[in-house]
Amino acid sequence: MGNMLTDSRKGLEFSYNLANLPESVEGADGASLTYSYLSDGSKWRASANSGPSILYRGSFVYEDDGNSSRISSIAWDEGRISYHYASAIDSLAVVDSLEVELGEIVVVDTMAVDIVEDGICDEWHVRDHLGSVRAIAGIGNYITGIRELNSYLPFGTRISGSIQAADNRHRFGGKEEQRYGIDADTGSPAIDLGLLDFGARYYDPYTCRWTTRDPMAGNYLSMSPYNYCAGNPVSIIDAKGDSTIVFLARDAAYLFGHIAVAVSSDDGSLIFWSRNGQIGDHEKKVFGKTVGHFNELGSTIPSVQEFLDSEDNTPKGKDDDRIIYSDAYVINTTEQQEKAIVESMSQSVPEDYHFLTNNCAEAVQEALSAGGVSTWYSSPEPLSTKVFPKILYNAVVNTNTGTKYKKTK
């Protein structure tokens, strides 16, 4: 299957379930870890052979010692609420003083806050443009101030020297670090995989590679199926291995062409979006999620090339007036970009369709611009020139890194 089975650097042996997610990990020092998942791949439980198990119940995280469970944290959009128990921890470190060196905030001193009774802390996670947690500020029974400061190398390795909250596992990309259990002698995690959980796959920031192959590798033939963000982690993230695909039908609409977008969903399928209309009577239509022969596209078409060459994208006779796509361009996009693209397309008003003044190309151009994808026409001002499908498609190809596909049958 192409999965990483052994990490000799850390002395770890991996086994996987049928969904290619880690099921058990064995350490050379005797430490072990087992995972349980829901049917959609969401993590349900992580259990080390020492220390409490971690239970995942949506935004609620619990600790389970085998006899009882207690809440550990509750996630919210801007951070989390963390719970501290006097029976489990003696003190928490917070920043006492800071200074700026060469534009970087540096911790000068820290202080320990004793935990004498159970308490909670409201935490705000300050994130950068990649979603990485750069700072954590907390207000609670014992803590009022900065709990954590982080700096990272481009591919996600955390630069040492900054303070970290021992109970926080979400850092680079906002993803969870895989370290569990408690070593009775040192008090540190019993097993630390050095991996980040991105949902569909696990990522190693030290080697800059995924531990399993990209399930959409067929769409990126020029790239390694283990590469992270096409080698460009400073500008983009790979939230779940997602992408945006721009489709072009060169011969549609009396050779003016037609353009549409498809966005990857959480399960790896494609959700198709297009603003369509008939030239003759300017019939107004907006389609979301299913459009004609694109119904069930994501569950039946594993790759862009296979779709382009499939029977679903081939004329069935001279009277077949369906749109037949000739080209596709796959662009790596973040989860935030995809949400902006889908929101823009979903807000396309059917009554606004017009073949010349408000066509498919302008809908796609506005959506891609909303998602931060370059189109040559991106501007804070209203569009002042007509946008046509072939021109827009060429602009997207020429100004964005991606992979081109053409219909061959």
What coarse outline follows from CA principal-axis ratios?
elongated
Alpha plus pi helix count: 5
Low-confidence stretches: 278-302, 377-385
Q: What oligomeric arrangement do these chains adopt? A: single chain
Along the chain, the helix and strand elements come as EEEEEEEEEEEEEEEEEEEEEEHHEHHHE
The largest β sheet comes out as: 12 strands, antiparallel
The spatial strand order of the largest sheet comes to 1-2-3-4-5-6-7-8-9-12-13-14
Average pLDDT, rounded to a whole number, is 75
- By helix and strand content, what is the structural category? mainly beta
Concise summary:
The protein is mainly beta.
What can you see in these coordinates?
The chain starts with 5 loop residues before the first strand and ends with a strand. The protein has helices at 297-300, 304-308, 335-346, 360-370, 389-399, and strands spanning 6-7, 12-16, 22-27, 32-37, 43-48, 53-57, 60-64, 69-76, 79-84, 91-101, 104-114, 119-127, 133-140, 144-149, 176-180, 191-197, 202-204, 209-210, 243-249, 258-264, 270-277, 284-289, 327-332, 402-406. It is mostly beta strands and 409 residues long. Mean pLDDT is 75; it is low at 278-302 and 377-385. The protein has a 12-stranded antiparallel beta sheet, with no helix packed on it. The longest helix is centred in the C-terminal third of the chain and has 12 residues, at 335-346. It has 5 helices and 24 strands.
